[in-house]
Amino acid sequence: QCYCEPCVFFKRTDKGLLIIGAYVDDLITLYSDEKEMRSVYADISSRFEFTPQEPLSDICGIEVSENSEHIILTLSGYIDKMADAFLSPETRSRAAHTPALESLPRLVDLALDQDPSSIDPKLLRKYRAIVGSILFAATTVRADIAYAAGMLSRAMSRPTPALLEAAERVVQYLSTTREIGIHYTRNADVQLDGSSDSDWQVRCSTSGYAFFLANAVVAYLSKKQPTIAMSSAQAEIYAASLAGLEATFLVGFLAQVVGHDVTPVDLGVDSKAAHDLSQDFISNSRTRHFERRQLKIRELVERAIVHVKSIGTSDNVSDIFTKPLNKGLFEKHRRTLLNCG
After folding, report:
1. 177-205 residue pLDDT tens
2. Is the pLDDT of residue 54 over 70?
3. What is the 3-state secondary structure (H, E, C) of the chain?
């Protein structure tokens, strides 16, 4: 049993590796030593009612397929059900190429300022149903809608008609791109790397990060920061610290499963100030008000768990988690994120 993920079990043998992931009464088994895995199957079957279903085709609504180059995760069936439930035929027939319009943050702010007693109960129920469905897609396979899902979730108790339209647009986008999914490259080296980013607002900023393995995303985040940053540097260093904590978990998990150290993990940031602050322990009037948790990345750099490097803003895929993007930049980052065209 993995010490950092109690629902994952592994065994290394002379001929390969066995991994079992448990979700309630469902198991996903990955193996390179088939004989040993058949032995495990027999042992489980001797004590429980157990039916192997091979090859893996779906798990928790996630569709699993493969070809000579990739293992592919999609949600096309789930998305079709969402579109049937929440979109009119006219809306469904129109294509949407991005999940969020530039106005989404402003719509959320306006919604949070309204009187809760004025909200139509029918609107509230429909909005919550749509956003709940969107959240499942965003947290499983469709990382490209994580920002939109996070922003819509901020107004779960105070939606407006405009926000309902914004939620329907996300479903419309998913329907337009229903076949898109995560493509993991077969037989790729065990090399973990990632990036982090943040916007900077007069309100609480949004942190984003992504980590990649087998050329596609394995961990990602789009989340409102708990405090108001006094500068873009503060917002960026906090996002980097959150990413560093995720990297700590991932390297511990990988080291235990694959049997060798994968540190340091490259973490790309597009802020020079955040890059310098991650390695500079000098305190001055511009930085001494930062909370300790916002500077956690410094400790992780010193311990050689994370290596922070500078990257260009246009190359930072985590930008997709912090703000609405235009179609060209959004599709560029989506290709990198999901490893698909």
Report:
1. 999 999 999 989 989 999 999 998 878 99
2. yes
3. CCCCCCCEEEEEECCEEEEEEEECCEEEEEECCHHHHHHHHHHHHCCCCCCCCCCCCEECCEEEEECCCEEEEECHHHHHHHHHHHCCHHHHHCCCCCCCCCCHHHHHHHHHCCCHHHCCHHHHHHHHHHHHHHHHHHHHCCHHHHHHHHHHHCCCCCCCHHHHHHHHHHHHHHHHCCCCCEEEECCCCCCCEEEEEECCCCCCCEEEEEEEECCEEEEEEEEECCCCCCCHHHHHHHHHHHHHHHHHHHHHHHHHHHCCCCCCEEEEECCHHHHHHCCCCCCCCCCCCCCHHHHHHHHHHHCCCEEEEECCHHHCHHHHHCCCCCHHHHHHHHHHHHCCC
